[in-house]
Amino acid sequence: MSENGERxxxxxxxxxxxxxxxxxxxxxxxxVRHLVADGVxxxxxxxxxxxxxxxxxxxxxSEWASLADFExxxxxxxHRDLVRPxxxxxTDARSVRFHIHAQTPTLTPA
Length: 110
Hints:
GO terms for molecular function: monooxygenase activity. This protein is α+β, with helices and mostly antiparallel strands.
């Protein structure tokens, strides 16, 4: 739990990107991820993943110190402007928010 008693959170986006928009999508994602990683309060980590069976299906996950941190970022004018180029690549998008209940420990190399 965070200092204010909130649990860490994971936000999951399942999006469709036509193959001809893949390069624009990945370029827009790179811009977003570097800016977020360099200073959005509460952001911990994110990943972008491509389906192994459907090249137009993508998964973006991000982990936050709390859902409140993510929601504050999502409401900001900077967020809307920054993610607009990425959203313009989507033909479909869904998002789900989770509180992290438990996690396996990170294994140290032998």
